[in-house]
Amino acid sequence: MGVTVRYEGGMRFVGESASGRAIAMDAPADSGGTGSEPTPVELLLNSIGGCTGMDIVYALRKMRTPATGLTIRIEERRASSFPRVVTNVHLDYEIAGEIPEENARRAVELSLSTYCTVSNSLACVGEITHAVRVVPS
After folding, report:
1. Would you say 35 and 60 are in contact if contact means Cβ atoms under 8 Å apart?
2. Of 66, 114, 118, the residue nearest 91 (C-alpha)
3. According to the CATH classification, is domain 40-135 in 3.40.1350.10?
4. HSE (side-chain half, CA atoms, 13 Å) at 34
5. Domain boundaries, the chain
6. If both were cysteines, with which of 14, 33, 82, 122 could 26 make a disulfide (CB 3.0 to 4.6 Å apart)?
7. What are the CA-CA distances from residue 83 to residues 78, 79, 86, 136 (Å)?
8. Strand order, beta sheet including 3-7
């Protein structure tokens, strides 16, 4: 697995995965870009959400308590000086469905402690916290 990232002018870059799928990135206008695409840090946060979300949906299906919806709100804190590394990521999970809270919490914990490659990679360099809410469908 790997990606190739190519510069396309201005501050726009396009990354292409080994599977041939492409994703564009750009910088905000105040940094010389157009702001027309997500920034690399936004993609990083989307990646953690997608990774942990897929784990949770899969785990809840295996528990025979499937989610009817899942929203993950993700906030990050960054260092104030360059290189402005991400120092904290907080994930707020809202899981919809007829799911026992114990199953929802277990699915989240399994994802964050064992299965989510992205969150576990980031946990090596910063703090990741979370909250879980189950809401009726």
Report:
1. no
2. 118
3. no
4. 9
5. 1-38, 40-135
6. 33
7. 9, 8, 9, 42
8. 3-7, 13-17, 22-25
Cα-Cα end-to-end distance for the chain: 37
The Cα 4–Cα 97 span in angstroms is 39
Q: What is the pLDDT along the chain (137 residues), one digit of tens a residue?
A: 799 999 999 999 999 999 999 999 999 999 999 999 999 999 999 999 999 999 999 999 999 999 999 999 999 999 999 999 999 999 999 999 999 999 999 999 999 999 999 999 988 878 889 999 999 88
Highest CATH level, class, for 1-38: mainly beta
